[in-house]
Specification:
Elements (H helix, E strand, L loop, with lengths): L3 H16 L3 H9 L14 H8 L2 H9 L15 H6 L3 H9 L14 H7 L5 H12 L14 H8 L2 H17 L3
Helix pairs in contact: 1-2, 2-4, 3-4, 6-8, 7-8, 7-9, 8-10, 9-10
């Protein structure tokens, strides 16, 4: 078992390995007791970086090693937010299953749902991510810091499929509340 200082050093080395594209080294370091929540000077941890890059094997290993889903990156976001933005469907599914807070708001005023819409492509991957986020409990009524809802953002970006998904969820919620 690595000491706390050793675990931190191993964690920082694992982040550096990931940034070089060396997942094998990162996985070996995690197995040796790397602190997967240690953050480098860019505030990237193993879990944050692997999530943002769609490195599912590393995400699984980091979660198994006790990775903290609440650790934030330099934008104040948790791993599910950049994974959603970048269209990493399977990574988003892993992070939802692990219990990510789908309504976490980053410094930009956005949740994973907002980022999937605003910074996504509107294509099949982002449509599936919106489905996953909604099924996982993301609040479709939560506005961004400008007061714009995900539905309004989808419409502004011309993402009709995503707008339709949001409309369906909003109708279901309205029926469920007795309105």
């Amino acid at each position: 078992m690595a000491s706390a200082d050793e675990a931190t050093a191993l964690g920082l080395t694992a982040v550096a390995a990931l940034k070089r594209g060396d997942t094998r080294e990162a996985l070996a370091l995690i197995a040796r007791g790397a602190d997967v929540d240690a953050r480098d000077d860019m505030l990237d941890s193993v879990l944050l970086y692997a999530g943002a890059e769609g490195m599912d094997e590393v995400v699984r290993a980091a979660l198994a090693a006790g990775g903290d889903l609440t650790v934030t990156n330099r934008y104040g976001g948790i791993a599910v937010i950049p994974a959603s933005e970048r269209g990493h469907v399977s990574t988003v599914a892993l992070l939802i299953e692990a219990g990510s807070d789908l309504d976490h708001v980053n410094r930009l005023g956005w949740t994973a749902l907002h980022e999937a819409i605003v910074l996504g492509t509107g294509g099949p991957a982002h449509q599936e991510i919106v489905r996953l986020l909604l099924a996982g409990g993301a609040d479709p009524r939560l506005p961004d810091r400008d007061g714009t809802t995900p539905r309004e953002l989808a419409e502004q970006h011309g993402w009709s499929e995503i707008a339709g998904l949001l409309d369906t969820r909003l109708r279901e919620d309205d029926r469920g509340s007795g309105d």
